[in-house]
Amino acid sequence: MRSFIYLCISFLLLALNTQAFTVNNIKSSSVNFPTLSTPIVAEEAAVTSTTLYGKKAARAQGNDRKNKTERVRKQKDDVIEVEAVVIESLPNAMFRCGIEGAPETQPPILATISGKIRKNYVKILVGDKVTVELSPYDLTRGRITFRKR
C-alpha cells in the first residue's frame, strides 16, 4: 500500500513539472521511482491573432454595414411599397401622405410610423419624401418604413 502511495505521488509530481525529488525510505525494492534532473519548461507562444470576439466583433460588423450605400431589406410578399410625400402631420404619429405620380383625384393615404422609425426617434416633417407600405386589403392606409434624406 505504501509503495502505491509513493507511486501516485511521483506521477503527480511529474505531471506538475516539479523539481527533482528522491525517496529514501522505501521498503519495497521492486518499485522504481522516476526522478527529474531538470524541470520541463514549456515555451510560451505569443498570440498574434487579430480575430475579434464578442462586442468588438459585433461593432466591427455594424461599421461594415454602415459603409454600404444600398439598403438591403427582406421583401414581404403581401405589401405594396410606394414613394410618397408627407402632406399633413396628424396627432398620434399619423401622417397624411400623397403618392408621387398619382392623379390628383386619388385621395391621400393615412400612414403611421413603423416600429423601427419610432424606436430610433426619426423625425418626419411635412414635405419629407417617405416610403410607404400599403396593405392590398386597404389601399387608403399604410405604414411609413423609410424617410428619404
UniProtKB/TrEMBL annotation:
InterPro entries: NA-bd_OB-fold, RNA-binding_domain_S1_IF1, TIF_IF1. Residues 1-20 form the signal peptide. This is Translation initiation factor IF-1, chloroplastic. CDD domains: S1_IF1 (cd04451). Belongs to the IF-1 family. It comes from Chaetoceros tenuissimus. Component of the 30S ribosomal translation pre-initiation complex which assembles on the 30S ribosome in the order IF-2 and IF-3, IF-1 and N-formylmethionyl-tRNA(fMet); mRNA recruitment can occur at any time during PIC assembly. It comes from the Eukaryota. GO terms for cellular component: cytosol. Residues 70-149 form the S1-like domain. The lineage of its organism: Eukaryota, Sar, Stramenopiles, Ochrophyta, Bacillariophyta. It holds the Pfam family eIF-1a. The keyword Nucleotide-binding does not apply. One of the essential components for the initiation of protein synthesis. Stabilizes the binding of IF-2 and IF-3 on the 30S subunit to which N-formylmethionyl-tRNA(fMet) subsequently binds. Helps modulate mRNA selection, yielding the 30S pre-initiation complex (PIC). Upon addition of the 50S ribosomal subunit IF-1, IF-2 and IF-3 are released leaving the mature 70S translation initiation complex. GO terms for molecular function: ribosome binding; RNA binding; translation initiation factor activity. Coiled coil: none annotated. Keywords: Initiation factor, Protein biosynthesis, Signal.
